[in-house]
Amino acid sequence: MHAEGASHKPKCPEGPVSILILGASGDLAKRKIIPALFALYCQNLLPEKFQVVGFARSRMSDEEFRGMATENLTCRYAPGNSCGELMEQFLARCFYFQGQYNSPESFRLLRERLLPLEGNEPTNRVFYMAIPPSVFLDVARSLKQAGLVTDGGASPWSRAVIEKPFGSDRSSSDEMVRNMAEVFEENQTYRIDHYLGKEVIQNLLVLRFANLIFDPIWNRAHIENVQISWKEDLSVEGRAGYFDGYGIIRDVIQNHLLQILALIAMEEPVSLHAKDIRDEKVKLLRSIPQVELRHVVVGQYAEGVWKGVRKAGYLEEEGVPKGSVTPTYAAAVLHVANRRWEGVPFLIRAGKGLNDRMTEIRIVFRETPGKLYDDALHEPVRNELVIRVQPDEAIVFRIMNKTPGLEMKLGISELNLRYQAAYRVEIPDAYECLLLDVLEGDESLFIRSDELAAAWDIFTPVLHRLEEERVQPEPYAFGAEGPLAAAGLAGRFGTGWR
Ligand code: BG6
Question: Active site includes 295?
Fold first, then answer.
C-alpha cells in the first residue's frame, strides 16, 4: 500500500541493503521469498547495491544455494533473452552461510562473512525469519549479540520480517511480542499476513473509499450479511506437524480472514499512512465480541475421492496423532458491535480438503422492499457484491435485470469486472508487494502488535474451549462442500452460504 496516492509508482529503495533469509533452505524461501526478490530485481525495484544471504542448517555451497534458488525463478517480468542474463546477475548476488539457529557463534561467523560482502558502506539490513517460531528469539538475540542489528530509527536501518504463527493465543502471542521487542522495536518489526499483499485485498479500501456509490449503503440498513469463504482442495501436504498443533482457525481464520473482515468493516482512515490505517483496523477488531462456541462449527476431512483420485483422510496423514480433534474446517459467525454493523452477521468459513480452491467475499444486501415486481420475480432475490480474491480475481455486482423479450420477466445479471479481461498486466505475487514495502519502510500492510492482540482476543476463548472440551469435528469427505452443520449455522442466521 502506498501513501502517496493514486499515481504512486513504486521506486527503487535507496541505499545498499543486505537481505538475510534465516531458514533459506526451506519451502517459504524457495517458493516465495527468493522468486519475489528476483521479480523485484527484474523490475528494477531492488537497490543498486544489494546481496541476498541465505542462512540455514543444511550444508550447501553458494553454487548449490543458487541452484536451489533457480528452481522457482520465473521470467514473468523479463520475457525473452534478457531473462537468462538477469538471472545470472541476480544469482551472482546470492550467497549462503551454514549455521545453527541456537548458536551465537554461528551468527558471529555470519557477520564475518557478511561484512566483506557489504564493503565499507553503511548497509541496511532485512532479516527475514523464514524459520519456526520456536527459534525466532534465539536467532534474534544472536543477531543482536553479533552486532548485526541497529536500533529502531537508526541509519542504516535493520528490519525484521516475521511470519505467523505469532503465538497460539493471546498470552503466548503477547509473550512473543515482548521477547522479540528486546531486539527489534515495533517500528522495525514487519509481521506478515501475506493476504494483505494480494491485489484484490489491497483494492478493498479503494473500492470502499474511492467510490461514492458504496458509501451510503455500506451499513446495517442495506446489508443483510457478509460472507467470507476460503476453500482449499488440498490436504495439509506434509505440514501435519505444524498444522495439528494449530488447526484451521489459527492457520487461516484468525489472521487472513479476520484481516479481510477488518478491511470490509472498518471506518475510513484519516489518511493512507500506516498508522491511520492500522488505527482504524484496531478500532474495528476491538468492536468484535469474542466468538461464542455456539456460533462455531468445526470439521475434519475424511477419506474421499477428489478429481478421480482417492485422498486420505486427515487422521491417516503422516504425523497426525491418533484421534486428533484438530479442525481442518471451521465456520463461525462474528458480529461487529458498533453503529454501522449492529445485527449484521459476518459469516466466515475456511477449510482444507474441500471441493474448490478459492477465496471470496460476498456482501449480501437486503431484499428490495415493495411489491412492484412480485409477479415478474420467481424467487426472492437480492443484490450481492462479490469480491473474488482468488483465483480469477474479480468484482461482480449481481443486479436484478429485465430479461430481454416481450414478457416482463426479471432475472439476476452480473456487472462483472474480471481482472484478467480488464487489465492486461501481470498480477504481482503478494510477496513481491510486501517485500518492496519492507524495503521502502511502509508498514501499512503489516500487523501491528495491538492489532495482533485484538485479533487474538476474538478467538482465544473459543479456541481454549474447543481444546479443553475436545470438541469433535464433524467429518466430511475430502472433496466435499464441508460439514453439514455449517449450513445449519448459516440457517440460524436466516441465510445460506452462497
Ligand atoms: C497460509 C496457510 O498462511 O496460507 C496455509 O498457513 C494455506 O495453510 C496458505 O495453504 C494459503 O495461501 P494462498 O496464498 O495459497 O491462498
Answer: no
pLDDT tens-digit readout, 413-427: 999 999 999 998 889
Q: Which atom of ligand 1 is least distant from the CA of 256? A: 3
Considering only CA atoms, which of 331, 310, 136, 348 is closest in space to residue 225? 348
Atom of ligand 1 nearest to the CA of 243: 8
Distance 163 CA to ligand 1 centre (A): 12
Does 280 sit in the ligand 1 pocket, CB within 6 Å?
no
Query: Domain 196-492, what architecture?
Result: 2-Layer Sandwich (3.30)
> Rounded to an integer, what distance in angstroms lies between the CA atom of residue 140 and that of residue 182?
9
Q: What is the pLDDT of residues 302-337, one digit of tens each?
A: 999 999 999 999 999 999 999 999 999 999 999 999
pLDDT at 3: 45
Report which ligand 1 atom has the smallest distance to the Cα of 195: 14
Q: Ligand 1, from 33, 194, 246: best to mutate by most atoms within 8 Å of Cβ? A: 194
Provide the 10 A C-beta neighbour count for residue 2: 19
Average pLDDT value for residue range 240-248: 94
Residue 144: which pLDDT band, with cuts at 50, 70 and 90? very high
Torsion of CA 276, 282, 285, 287, to 10 degrees: -90
> ω into residue 391 within 30 of 0, thus cis?
yes
Domain 17-163 has CATH 3.40.50.720: yes
**For the chain, domain boundaries:** 17-163, 196-492
Identify which of 192, 251, 427 to mutate to test ligand 1's pocket (most ligand atoms within 8 A of the CB): 251
pTM over 0.85: yes
Q: Say which of 2, 8, 256, 295 is annotated catalytic.
A: 256
